[in-house]
Specification:
heterodimer, A: 173 residues, alpha+beta, Ubiquitin-like (UB roll), DNA polymerase, domain 1, 2 domains, 5-stranded mixed β-sheet, 5 strands, B: 745 residues, Aldehyde Oxidoreductase, domain 3, Aldehyde Oxidoreductase, domain 4, 3 domains, 24% helix
Chain lengths: 173, 745
């Protein structure tokens, strides 16, 4: 549909030059040559070929694009690739270590915490970030702090069950 | 020891690991060298003509490859019929870029193709379009007087029009002891699967295409593309193993498929077209519907008269219908009935099946009217359903193939604690919040369609099963693998199910809760034929272990054919394949529902939904604190994935009753909330305690598997149960969905 763009003349766009962005993605160095208007999400998907991170709205409204940036969960559609030069990014492809699934990934399978699977990469990255933050004490608080990640299939209760199981495991460690 | 049957086991999704590691690839995830990106331009007017379409500024940008519109598109199939598809209602299907005519707001009018997504999107803003506008109508309620009967067509076979009137409704209603009537309104809804609609068309050369499409039917998309672009079917391959939700939106080919294929063929390049979230509001949707009900009952609570009328939106070019008004008489055996269903043509895109189409609309009116009647009769709402319980489908005078709804009512009420309900509205509280209990009935048809499946035992003794069917998140891969495993006496791990590919044997579009019954029956038939074929080879093998025996004398287990009377006499599948010269043993079976037998019965799933709401009257907040759905859906192949289907329907119920609606501004003819922050769906914090019960239901008639499908039934009974609970809590009956908090203030 029609989208309002800031005042941008064709001339200036033609003068855009690709910028070199150096990221560490899933513990590997990644160099991207991108124009400044490329979001981190598109940088990861279209330029680094990491399509595990999903685009559901491109507006920060659905959470499907959540990745970990320097350990914190961020919406990769709401930040430009060039703004993240030097950052350490973990995407869903980097959550399992040496073929061993992360406890959250296992819990998601066990609890049937997804159906179509499209929101799943974002849910898992967001849940890892949320647990790292350490703010959520109760199930209600986990639900609240996970509410930026939409699930249209309606797997909500199973997603929260999976996260609570891992949260409780962590509490006992 | 025999193989433990897989059917009935809670097997975790077989594709689970791919989905939690980001390796499952969806339609827009195929990065191929030289891939071009398409961005769609949509009409900003609702009706009229394009009079100028200036692409010069866009095409001047380096990296912009082409801008397509109605003036420079390739010549395409001429006849309207060639644009049809498996889910097309009667009428003329929409033809993208056909001409300068604008039929609805958001209509695709152009496609910019560029080397990057950003460039394509930016270039689209430089395209200048001028229009000549015409008057239009998009408001159902303002145009209700234009309602007319729907046209008949192929689609009406699966969606019967209302049954004929019975008895004398007006007289019976007038003479009835207690009466309830209501007017109901539902707004437009858009499916909004989380995955954006996308098609990646890989140009393979020589008129050959591989297409990754977001669809609920690979063969549906294949036929559509081949027919429109004049390609040979064998040169069009559509692949869709992972579909990021669809809920009906993938039942018809959407315009990104057309545009991606058109650009790929014209440019001889591979092209990805992804719609953005606002563009997800520019095609099919659940139609807004106006309903009215009048139910009458005698002093014992027996319903004697039923009238249910609906007026729904359709487009100017197709007559989309759904089954809204047929359900009440399938449930309640009244002697006098009058059912009416009409359409109003508006300047919108054709509506499209959306999860539990018609049922989730109609049952709201029916079950809220029954609830109201229960208060008038001073009979408990659950008791009123039991008083009017019928083992047969009175609307068609035939028995149900099975119906364990009574068990749903009883088990559901018991587990939910229905007996703790004080019948008086506004009588229950939790602190400063009003508490309400509501219940309602759900019903959905148990259909099946013809399908084909292939089953192969390979040299390693493993089973390979093939079908073109998709898995839109319903668990199809897992459930089909379970059915196949049991048929050959193998473990699920020894079965490979290949699907989501138009080159595999025919499967119809995936929807309507008929996939397990349809494709599952084909797989069962193929498995059964494969057993016979394996047995035949085994009997003729050297050593004559099974000589002179019949297939009834053996069992298939652990990858072997085993003599029933002597478990130590067996022949392994691997030995059979060796005896077959190492050639895999293969069968393809076509399964067709036995219509002669089936037409003697009505086939339906049933559910009873129980809901607790808390209403903060000062803030107007409605919270579904607890809900339970008890389901009778025949045999449950996989309780884990089936439960998830029902849970999904329950979350959709909360969304339908309390959250989601697309708002059309009738002065602009445009949907105003085309994004996920203004199109509200529940977030995690909105979803509380949800419980699912499956009651035992044996059905030897519906199909060989005894399955009835679980995709829709979770979304039929619970929306009215929420409305009924809100009434019980507040004493206010709100007959409009979604129920906005200001209606309660």
């Amino acid at each position: 549909m029609t989208t309002d763009y800031p005042d941008m003349q064709a001339e200036t766009v033609e003068n855009f030059t690709p910028q070199k962005v150096t990221l560490t993605v899933n513990q590997k160095p990644v160099e991207l040559e991108v124009l400044p208007w490329v979001s981190l999400l598109d940088g990861l998907r279209d330029y680094a070929g990491l399509t595990g991170t999903k685009k559901g709205c491109d507006h920060g409204q659905c959470g499907a694009c959540t990745v970990l940036c320097d350990g914190e969960r961020i919406l990769s559609c709401l930040t430009l690739a060039v703004m993240n030069d030097g950052s350490e990014i973990t995407t869903i492809e980097g959550i399992a270590q040496e073929g061993e699934l992360h406890p959250l990934q296992k819990a998601f399978i066990e609890h049937d915490a997804f159906q179509c699977g499209y929101c799943t990469p974002g849910q898992i990255c967001s849940a890892i970030g949320m647990l790292n933050e350490g703010k959520a004490k109760s199930r209600e608080e986990v639900k609240e702090l996970m509410s930026g990640n939409l699930c249209r299939c309606g797997a909500n209760t199973n997603i929260i069950d999976a996260i609570m199981e891992v949260k409780n495991q962590l509490a006992h460690e | 020891m025999s193989t433990i049957p897989s059917i009935g086991q809670s097997v975790s999704r077989l594709e689970g690991k791919l989905k939690v590691t980001g390796t499952a690839k969806y339609a827009g995830d195929y990065q191929v060298p030289g891939l071009l990106y398409g961005y769609v331009i949509n009409s900003i007017i609702t009706k009229g003509k394009i009079i100028r379409f200036d692409t010069s500024k866009a095409t001047a940008l380096p990296g912009v490859i082409a801008v397509f519109n109605h003036t420079n598109r390739p010549s395409l199939a001429w006849f309207s019929m060639q644009y049809t598809d498996m889910d097309a209602p009667p009428g003329s299907p929409f033809r993208p870029l056909r001409d300068e005519e604008i039929l609805y707001n958001g209509q695709p009018i152009g496609l910019v193709v560029a080397e990057t997504f950003e460039l394509a999107r930016y270039a689209a803003t430089l395209v200048e379009v001028e229009y000549e506008t015409e008057a239009f109508e998009t408001d159902l309620r303002n145009n209700a007087s234009e309602a007319r009967s729907p046209k008949m067509g192929m689609a009406t076979m699966l969606k019967p029009l209302p049954p004929r009137p019975k008895g004398n409704f007006e007289k019976a209603f007038e003479q009835s002891f207690a009466q309830s009537s209501g007017e109901y309104y539902h707004g437009t809804e858009h499916h909004n699967p989380l995955e954006l609609f996308a098609t990646t068309t890989i140009y393979e050369g020589k008129g050959k295409l591989t297409i990754y499409d977001k669809t609920q039917g690979t063969i549906n998309s294949q036929l559509y593309v081949a027919n429109i672009f004049g390609l040979k079917y064998k040169n069009v391959r559509v692949i869709a193993p992972y579909v990021g939700g669809a809920f009906g939106s993938g039942l018809r080919p959407q315009y990104q498929l057309f545009l991606s294929v058109m650009a790929a063929l014209e440019l001889k390049r591979s092209v990805l077209v992804t719609l953005d979230r606002s563009q997800m509001f520019t095609f099919g949707h659940r139609p807004p519907t106006i309903q009215s009900t009048r139910f009458g009952a005698d002093e014992n609570g027996k319903v004697t008269a039923l009238n249910h009328a609906a007026i729904a939106e359709t487009s100017r070019f197709e007559d989309y219908t759904e089954v809204v008004v047929n359900w009440s008489h399938m449930l309640y055996p009244a002697e006098n009935t009058l059912m009416q269903y009409k359409l109003v043509e508006l300047d919108v895109f054709t509506p499209l099946d959306m999860r539990a189409p018609g049922g989730s609309t109609g049952l709201h009116a029916i079950e809220s009217t029954m609830d109201d009647l229960s208060y008038k009769l001073k009979i408990d709402p659950l008791e009123l359903r039991l008083i009017n319980y019928s083992d047969t489908d009175v609307s068609l005078n035939r028995p149900y193939s099975s119906k364990e709804l009574r068990q749903c009512y009883l088990h559901g009420a018991e587990k939910f604690g229905w007996k703790n309900r004080n019948p008086e509205p506004r009588s229950m509280r939790n602190g400063n919040k009003l508490v309400g209990y509501g219940m309602a009935t759900g019903i959905w048809e148990a259909n099946s369609l013809p399908a084909r499946a292939e089953a192969i035992i390979t040299r390693d003794g493993k089973l390979h099963v093939n079908s073109a069917v998709t898995d839109i998140g319903t668990g199809t891969l897992t459930v089909m693998s379970q059915i196949a495993a049991d048929e050959l006496g193998l473990r699920v791990e020894d079965v490979t199910f290949s699907y989501g590919d138009s080159q595999k044997p025919f499967a119809p579009i995936q929807g309507g809760s008929f996939t397990v019954s349809t494709v599952g029956s084909a797989i069962k038939a193929a498995g059964s034929a494969l057993r016979k074929k394996l047995f035949k080879i085994a009997v003729s093998m050297e050593g004559a272990l099974l000589k002179g025996l019949e297939i009834e004398d053996v069992r298939f287990e652990n990858g072997c054919i085993v003599l029933k009377t002597d478990p130590f006499t067996f022949i392994s599948f691997t030995d059979i394949i060796e005896a077959n010269g190492g050639t895999p043993v293969k069968v393809i079976k076509f399964s067709v529902p036995n219509l002669l037998k089936l037409k003697k019965y009505s086939r339906a799933t049933h559910a009873a939904a129980f809901v607790e709401v808390e209403v903060d009257e000062e803030l107007g907040i409605i919270n579904v604190t607890r809900a339970l759905t008890a389901v009778a859906a025949g045999r449950i192949i996989n309780p884990k994935t089936a439960r998830s289907q029902i849970l999904g329907g329950m979350v959709w119920s909360i969304s339908k009753a309390l959250r989601e609606e697309t708002i059309n501004d009738s002065l602009l003819g445009k949907y105003m909330n085309q994004n996920l922050s203004e199109y509200h769906i529940p977030v995690h914090a909105d979803i509380h305690d949800l419980d699912v019960i499956f009651v035992e239901e044996k059905d030897d008639i519906v199909n060989e598997l005894g399955t009835k499908g679980v995709g829709e039934i979770g979304l039929v009974g619970m929306p009215p149960a929420i409305a009924n609970a809100v009434y019980h809590a507040t004493g206010k009956r709100i007959n409009q969905f979604p129920i906005h908090f200001d209606y309660l203030l």
